[in-house]
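Can you make up a protein sequence with its backbone structure tokens?

===
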Amino acid sequence: MQLKTLLQFSRGYKKQIWDTASVSLGRSVIVDKNVNQAYNELRNILNESNVRKVVRSQQRFESFHDKKKRLRKERDWGVYLAAVKKNVKIALHMKQRTADEKQNYDHL
């Protein structure tokens, strides 16, 4: 099947790249011999298309205020995690730099 015909089946979720589209159609995956690999591909497709998030949000009614509050918390948590990731990266860089400097001045 050509890429153009595969992309016509899009239902509002992220369009798959050609590599994934060659083995999947929408949210279906062809299972050859390795079931674990097929499961991982399906999980990646579902994560890209946010299917789990949509299903979870449709299980119970969420008022506008609660939804706004939850989205704000998720956004703040993402900002916090990005800051932590940045600080960890800086700390690891400083640790490596210190080790390099110590190695350069060991002979003194």
